[in-house]
């Protein structure tokens, strides 16, 4: 037996000694003597046979102690499961951007310089043919994106009408990403006929802050109009889950507790969640993003100082969920061009093909799906959090290959791990008081 590479030993000045294993998500408080024994075993790479039998049994079960090839076998199993899932053709993922135009001018937007073209009727009809051409597909997961997709709602309605009439297409999930400004009662009443499962709408702080961040191109305020539209959507789109995304950056981070209280009170017991998400610079970003350590501090402040309790500091397993990872998932632009990554919309050098042909750019496909994933990143393979992580954004690795740009795709900074585990322990103490 050996000490697993997925173990993390740490000494908390507040609470004592701990060991965490990311493969089984096991977390033990231990005494100083055992801590020092485990540190010695780890550094010397000696057999843990000197540990008492009870400890050995518990640690074997938690995968803290493993057979010599066990960690390597786990990596291969994870790789196999990931590729098997991503290469499956039983489901089809379609993201449609009916326009790249937007009525907002948000300072962190990565699509701000794209042409405001709108999808033509001929391309709308061809999209339905493209979806129907995939034989053997059980369900189609459909998402609307942009630009602001509701600026081309007539196109959306035409495509939806054809899709829901088609005997060859079975919709699994139907989602919409919108800024919410145009989500009026008329549009909601039309969408309720098309089994809309999920809507994401962004609100970026209390009213004053939001109006400075989610800027309408005409200069008019947007906050109250969006809230009124959400009120209507909650009444009309019964069964549709609405996620309020709050893009957190240095200028609005302090707003979140007040915004959370305001919106939670307004929509109490409604089918809605309010979720902070941190801005990421994909180029051209005009706001200052929070560093990983500042993000941990942000969550700590919410839980302990603002009594926002639906926060879990413990690490949870992330599953593959990115469009770029899946062979049978495509983003369709307004000209019928195809992409693998949402951020690539409008970039000619990232087009992998079109809806008019079955020929795809295999180089881009292979890079996104395999060449730039976590299994080809030496940092990932040696990371103690490898079992829990999805590898982060392949786009950053791809652009590092192309342009040599620096990247950090880690969802959790390893330097924050001890802090997060300590916060989890403190959270559990408060819950059990």
Task: Describe the structure concisely for a colleague.
With 433 residues, the protein is an alpha/beta fold.
Topology record:
Elements: E1 2-3, E2 7-12, E3 16-21, E4 26-30, H1 32-44, H2 53-61, E5 65-66, H3 70-86, E6 91-96, H4 121-132, E7 139-144, H5 153-165, E8 171-178, H6 185-191, E9 198-202, H7 207-213, H8 223-236, E10 241-248, H9 256-266, E11 272-278, H10 292-305, E12 329-332, E13 337-339, E14 353-354, H11 362-371, H12 378-381, H13 394-403, H14 417-431
Parallel strand pairs: 6-7, 6-12, 7-8, 8-9, 9-10, 10-11
Antiparallel strand pairs: 1-5, 2-3, 3-4, 12-13, 13-14
Salient structural properties:
14 strands; globular; 14 helices; 9-stranded mixed beta sheet; alpha/beta; 3-stranded antiparallel beta sheet
Largest sheet: 9 strands, mixed
The DSSP helix count reads 14
Terminus-to-terminus distance: 38 Å
**Quaternary state of the chains:** single chain
User: What proportion strand?
Assistant: 15-25%
SSE sequence, one letter per element:
EEEEHHEHEHEHEHEHHEHEHEEEHHHH
* Sequence stretches where pLDDT stays below 50 over 5 or more residues: none
Evaluate the radius of gyration: 24 Å
Secondary structure tally: strands: 14
Structural class of the secondary elements? alpha/beta
How much helix, percentage-wise, in residues? 25-40%
What's the mean pLDDT score? 93
Order of strands, widest sheet: 11-10-9-8-7-6-12-13-14
Task: Sum up the overall morphology in one term.
Answer: globular
């Amino acid at each position: 037996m050996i000490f697993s590479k997925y173990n993390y030993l740490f000494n908390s000045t507040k609470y004592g000694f701990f060991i965490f294993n990311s493969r089984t998500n096991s977390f033990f408080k231990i005494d100083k003597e055992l801590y020092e024994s485990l540190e010695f075993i780890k550094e010397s790479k000696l057999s843990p046979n000197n540990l008492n039998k009870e400890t050995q049994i518990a640690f074997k079960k938690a995968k803290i102690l493993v057979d010599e090839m066990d960690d390597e076998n786990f990596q291969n199993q994870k790789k196999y499961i990931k590729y098997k899932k991503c290469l499956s053709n039983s489901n089809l993922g379609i993201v449609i951007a009916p326009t790249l135009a937007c009525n907002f001018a948000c300072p962190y937007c990565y699509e701000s310089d794209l042409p405001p073209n709108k999808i033509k009727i001929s391309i709308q009809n061809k999209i339905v043919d493209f979806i129907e051409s995939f034989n053997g597909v059980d369900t189609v997961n459909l998402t609307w994106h942009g630009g602001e997709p509701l600026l081309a709602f007539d196109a959306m309605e035409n495509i939806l009408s054809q899709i829901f009439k088609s005997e060859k297409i079975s919709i699994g999930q139907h989602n919409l990403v919108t800024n919410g400004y145009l989500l009026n009662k008329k549009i909601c009443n039309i969408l309720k006929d098309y089994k809309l499962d999920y809507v994401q709408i962004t609100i970026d702080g209390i009213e004053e802050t939001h109006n400075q961040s989610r800027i309408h191109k005409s200069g008019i305020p947007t906050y109250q109009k969006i809230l009124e539209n959400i009120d209507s959507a909650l009444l009309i789109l019964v069964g549709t889950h609405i996620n309020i995304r709050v893009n957190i950056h240095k200028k609005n981070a302090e707003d979140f507790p007040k915004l959370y209280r305001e919106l939670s009170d307004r929509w109490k017991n409604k089918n809605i969640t309010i979720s902070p998400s941190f801005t990421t610079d994909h180029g051209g970003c005009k706001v200052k993003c929070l560093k990983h350590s500042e993000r941990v501090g942000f969550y700590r402040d919410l839980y302990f100082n603002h009594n926002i309790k639906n926060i879990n500091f413990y690490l949870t397993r992330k599953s593959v969920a990115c469009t770029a990872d899946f062979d049978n998932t495509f983003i369709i632009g307004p000209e019928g061009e195809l992409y693998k990554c949402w951020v690539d919309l409008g970039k000619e050098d990232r087009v992998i093909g079109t809806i008019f042909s079955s020929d795809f750019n295999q180089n881009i496909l292979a890079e996104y799906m395999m060449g730039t994933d976590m299994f080809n990143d030496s940092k990932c393979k040696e990371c103690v959090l490898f079992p829990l992580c999805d590898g982060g954004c392949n786009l950053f690795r791809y652009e590092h290959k192309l342009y040599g740009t620096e990247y950090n795709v880690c969802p959790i900074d390893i330097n924050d791990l001890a802090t997060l585990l300590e916060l989890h322990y403190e959270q559990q103490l408060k819950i059990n008081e």
